[in-house]
Amino acid sequence: MTCILLVDDEPAITESLAYAFERVGMASLSASCLTDATRLFESEQIDLVVLDLVLPDGNGLDWLRTIRAYSQIPVIILSSHDETVDQIVGLEVGADDYVGKPFSPRAMIARVRAVLRRSGAGSDSGPVADSGSVANSEKSGVRIDTNRRQAYLDAQALPLSRTEFDLLNLFFNDPGRVFERDDILAAVWGPDVSVTERTVDVHIKSLRKKLAAAGQVGGLIETVRGVGYRLAESAN
Length: 236
Fold this sequence. Notes:
Structural class: alpha/beta
CATH class of the largest domain: Alpha Beta
Oligomer: single chain
Number of domains: 2
Strand order of the largest sheet: 2-1-3-6-7
Largest sheet: 5 strands, parallel
Distance between the termini: 44 Å
Number of helices: 8
């Protein structure tokens, strides 16, 4: 059974989510502080973490940085801070998705299922974006290995989240196509997940920053104004 670790100091949130997860056959454990979260994370079999940013004994992003040093278990950030900069920082340090408060338990379940599908964890596994028939593909020095679900710039592994990898893989699979935001949402997040088009923009921005920070020159993902995104025409 899929087990979700809920890290939030508001009992109303953890209790409502625990009830919602139980109704769809998922187990959950709750922690109201980072100390308890660490204990449960290291002692229990956790498939995904829902993590608040502001907790009594520290910052959720700092905790995420710590666990990313030794674990790739999916993490969804949950916070009342709905600023784009907070979302981007969360994605940069290794979050797989970001949900702002307030939210509906039904929407959270959909987001959890989508992240689990992308990671292959839990009972909701299965591909969202088509990985294509070729395990390795390279454009402008960036190579993706779909078997390992890892992207590289030259020989350097890129620290992409699962969502960012799926976005890059989507563009690589159809390099001549202009993807509208709705197309990207359906392919990467799934048709049943309630997210806004702005979510695509935030993840694309984070992906671009990681590519640039690693030394990729020229920009691999182009914005097609008024339409969406595509792999840069200069990519070869």
